[in-house]
Automatic annotation (TrEMBL):
Name of protein: ZIP family zinc transporter
Parts of the chain that traverse the membrane: 6-26, 33-51, 63-84, 119-141, 161-186, 193-215, 221-239
Keywords: Membrane, Transmembrane, Transmembrane helix
Transmembrane helix is among the record's keywords: yes
Keyword Transmembrane: yes
Length: 243
C-alpha cells in the first residue's frame, strides 16, 4: 500500500504540470500572476529542502552523507541544465520562445526538474511514515506555473494543444514512476544511501531554484516576489511542524 501511495502522491505532484498546461492553453493568465505562484512554490520548496530533505538526510547519515549528496545533486543539475539549455534555453517561457527549441529538450528539462522532487516524495514514506504534506505542496505549487508558462509558450510557438497536453501528461506519469522508484529502491537501502539520495534531491532542487525558478519569478513579478516567497516558506515551515 505504501508503494501505491508513493506513486499516487508523485502523480499528484506531476499532475500539477498538466493542470498548469491546461490553464496556459485555454486561459489568459497574466505573467505577474504566474510569477507570484512561482514565488510561493519557490518559498515552499526552500523550506522543504531545509526541514524535510536535509534534516532527514542528516539524521540518517550524518554530515558526510548529507554533504556529499547535496554537492553531487547540485553538480548533476548544473551539468544537465547546461546541456538542456543549449537546445531549449527558454523552455519555461510563456511568449513562444520555444519555437527554436527541441520538444525533447523541453521534456527532458521538465523531467530534470521533477524527478528529484518525486523521488523525495516517495522517500518520505519509507519506514511506514506518512507522506510529507509540505513536500507535496511544494512540488505542486512549483509545477503549476512551470506547466502553465511552458505550455503557453509552446502553443504560441506552433505546437497543437493535443501535443502539449500529451507531453505534460507523460511527464506526470514519469513523476509517479519516479516517486514509486524512490520508495521501492530506498525502502531496503542502508541509511547512508537513503541519506545521500535525499540530499542529492535537495541539491538538485536548490540549484534549480537559484538558477531558474527564482530569477524567472523576479523578472516577471518584480520585487514583491520576495515577500511572496517568504510567505511560501512560512507555509511550508508550519506544515512541517504540524506533521
Amino acid at each position: 500500500m505504501e508503494a501505491l501511495a508513493a506513486g499516487f502522491w508523485g502523480f499528484v505532484g506531476g499532475a500539477a504540470l498538466l493542470i498548469g498546461a491546461v490553464v496556459g492553453l485555454y486561459a489568459n493568465v497574466s505573467r505577474r500572476i504566474i510569477a507570484v505562484v512561482m514565488a510561493v512554490g519557490a518559498g515552499v520548496l526552500v523550506a522543504s529542502v531545509a526541514f524535510e530533505l536535509m534534516e532527514e538526510a542528516y539524521d540518517a547519515g550524518g554530515f558526510g552523507a548529507a554533504s556529499a549528496g547535496l554537492i553531487l545533486g547540485a553538480l548533476a543539475y548544473f551539468a544537465a541544465d547546461g546541456l538542456v539549455s543549449r537546445r531549449a534555453r527558454d523552455r519555461k517561457r510563456s511568449e513562444g520562445q520555444q519555437e527554436d527549441g527541441s520538444a525533447t529538450a523541453i521534456t527532458i528539462g521538465a523531467l530534470m526538474d521533477g524527478i528529484p522532487e518525486s523521488v523525495a516524495i516517495g522517500a518520505s514514506l519509507i519506514g511506514g511514515g506518512s507522506v510529507s504534506a509540505a513536500m507535496v505542496a511544494a512540488v505542486f505549487l512549483s509545477n503549476v506555473p512551470e506547466g502553465l508558462s511552458a505550455a503557453a509558450g509552446m502553443r504560441k510557438a506552433g505546437h497543437p494543444a493535443s501535443y502539449v497536453l500529451g507531453l505534460w501528461g507523460a511527464v506526470a506519469v514519469a513523476s509517479a514512476l519516479a516517486a514509486l522508484f524512490g520508495y521501492l529502491f530506498l525502502a531496503g537501502a542502508p541509511s547512508g544511501v537513503v541519506a545521500t539520495i535525499q540530499a542529492f534531491a535537495a541539491g538538485a532542487i536548490l540549484t534549480m531554484l537559484a538558477s531558474t525558478m527564482m530569477p524567472e519569478a523576479y523578472e516577471e513579478g518584480g520585487a514583491v516576489v520576495g515577500l511572496v516567497t517568504t510567505g511560501g516558506f512560512l507555509i511550508a515551515f508550519v506544515l512541517s511542524r504540524l506533521e
